[in-house]
Specification:
16% strand, 17 helices, 421 residues, alpha/beta, Rossmann fold
Length: 421
């Protein structure tokens, strides 16, 4: 048995396809509407499917006389002796059987005005869409009512008002919720009613807790006995070159030390020229190296200086090859300190992952930049609290030699919590 399926935008077009393909004596076995539902009709439009076969003989449930156009003829009556599903098409002109429309001549099909059919489709679609939208709105209203009932039935928080205010302030400052809860519970466990009654005292206690956990490295160690080599590493765009210039200017102009610069950032011509400009202004010697051997020779030539600052190319923490290249370059320089430069505008998870990845190159401290560009600094609490690297410097602008300061525990804790002074 050969069964074929025909699809069209209207039922009439689908039946016409059956007539042309299988002839007027074909039996319609199945009809259905595709893309049911308002959303499917809106996106894909209406589609109808008709399954028919020219080789199926089934008893007919239609009367022998169907219409005036040859309905009484023996041949036409014989063509209607098939079993047809009772699929009816409702239109403004009345009820029409899909099979009778198929068997009828083209003149009969054309008797049904297309405009009335299309208008009927639009009306049915509009009614279905309205019914579904009403149902969805009813569901949304029921959900909102349930949420309101739960909110009214839920017990209020059992925290004192001062602790609750401090907790919400920390959440708004983007401090991790688990850390905020830990501090609140610790203050609550202290059991000091006077401290818990004053929100100022609560925030002061929180700052004290963070201050106890923050580790700082202090400024770069210098001495008269030998040359100190300090390298700055980190991802691209965190401000390593500008920070190198700030450090060089401060140690040369304010500390009166003999300072030299080495740059490995040959990937960016602008970076070399930027550092060379700073070196010319401050009157500092500068070396540009591209290989580990050149690095070793440059460090040896600057061995008579008090401090050598090394600017490295930005490396993606995900690029294993570039990280190993950086590690090889630093092994030839044998730096005394390796400061990981991180931007305060990055997310907490990204900063923590970057710090872990750059640990392979031998980092000894973290230097946080762009504090002035960050919306808030609370997300840095997770970094400084759980990190193994102490904080060395903080930068908050582009001005050279200003906009850089040595990290202090109390001041840093206050900045991260948004406490001024």
């Amino acid at each position: 048995m050969d069964i074929k399926t025909f699809r069209a935008k209207t039922m009439r077009d689908a039946l016409e396809l059956v007539r042309r393909e299988l002839g007027p004596s074909a039996a319609v076995l199945h009809t259905r509407e595709l893309n049911t539902g308002p959303l499917g009709r809106l996106v894909f439009g209406r589609r109808y499917e008709v399954a028919a076969s020219a080789g199926v003989n089934v008893p007919s449930r239609l009367p022998e006389a169907v219409n005036d156009q040859g309905a009484g003829s023996r041949e036409h009556g014989a063509r209607l002796e098939y079993e047809v599903p009772s699929t009816k098409y409702e239109s403004p002109l009345g009820s029409h059987d899909c099979y009778s429309m198929l068997q009828a001549p083209s003149s009969t099909l054309s008797a049904v005005p297309q405009a009335h059919l299309e208008a009927d489709y639009r009306n049915r679609y509009r009614d279905d869409f309205r019914q579904q939208m009403v149902g969805q709105l009813d569901e949304l209203q029921a959900m909102v009512e349930k949420l309101c009932e739960r909110a009214n039935a839920a017990p209020a928080h059992d925290l004192p008002e001062s602790l609750f205010e401090a907790f919400t302030d920390m959440i708004e400052a983007e401090i991790d919720e688990s850390i905020a809860r830990e501090w609140i519970e610790e203050i609550r466990a202290d059991g000091d009613p006077r401290a818990m009654a004053d929100v100022v005292l609560v925030k002061s206690r929180i700052a004290q807790l963070l201050e106890e956990e923050v580790q700082v490295a202090g400024s770069i160690k210098t001495g008269a006995d030998r040359c100190r080599v300090v390298a700055l590493v980190g991802p691209t765009g965190v401000g390593k070159t500008t920070t190198i210039a700030k450090l060089a200017a401060n140690y040369r102009l304010r500390e009166k030390l003999r300072v030299g610069l080495i740059t490995v950032d040959t990937y960016r011509v602008a970076a070399v020229e930027q550092l060379r400009t700073y070196a010319d202004i401050i009157d500092l010697p500068m070396e540009v190296v591209a290989t580990p051997r050149e690095m070793r020779e440059a460090v040896n030539r600057m061995g008579h200086l008090d401090l050598v600052l090394m600017d490295t190319a930005g490396r993606s923490p995900r690029d294993e090859v570039k990280i190993q290249e950086l590690k090889s370059m630093l092994s030839e320089a044998e730096p005394d300190e390796v400061h990981l430069v991180l931007s305060s505008t990055a997310g907490a998870k990204s900063l923590i992952a970057t710090a872990e990845r750059f640990a392979d190159v031998g980092t000894t401290a973290m230097l946080l930049t762009k504090l002035d560009e960050a919306h808030s600094l609370g997300h840095l609490v997770s970094l400084v609290r759980g990190g193994t690297l102490p904080i060395s410097y903080l930068t908050d602008g582009q001005n050279v030699p200003d906009d850089i300061q040595v990290a202090q525990r109390r001041a840093l804790a206050g900045m991260l919590l948004g406490i001024q002074g």
